[in-house]
Amino acid sequence: MADSDLEAIRQARLQQLQTQGSGNAGGGGGGSGGGQQDEQRSREEAQRTSILGQILEPLAADRLGRIRMVNASRAEDVENRLIMLARSGQLRQRVNEDQLKDILSAVAEQQKESAAAKVVVQRRGAAWDDDDLDDLLNED
């Protein structure tokens, strides 16, 4: 990844932190809160789009767009992972389509593991049930 790309990512992150800091320091302004939140969301989305445009090759960006049409939550997970990798400096070059496929596989595997981790509730063997109450009442 080129130094200019990293600098653009740093500037976008700095701007994001500054807008978050100024938004929290305001203390709640009344009726214009919804408009400020919408504006902040649109700025964050623009930053995400900018970062993704810098780190994805055109074919990879196109594939991610098609994935977003089918499964928006999975596309968002992949985007978050790509942005995290870019911000931590782990991406040395732009992500091509094959690398994006690998990331998609990793995200799918992670989602399978989290779905497989279910809570199983077991009743204790010595617990009372409906039959026990009948047995107590009918004892003579």
TrEMBL record:
Stretch list, region Disordered: 13-50
InterPro entries: PDCD5-like, PDCD5-like_sf
Keywords, sorted A to Z: DNA-binding
Molecular function via GO: DNA binding
Cited SUPFAM superfamilies: Double-stranded DNA-binding domain
A GO CC term attached to the entry: cytosol
Bias-annotated ranges (Basic and acidic residues): 38-47
PANTHER family in alphabetical order: PROGRAMMED CELL DEATH PROTEIN 5
Record's protein name: DNA-binding TFAR19-related protein
Organism (species): Dissoconium aciculare CBS 342.82
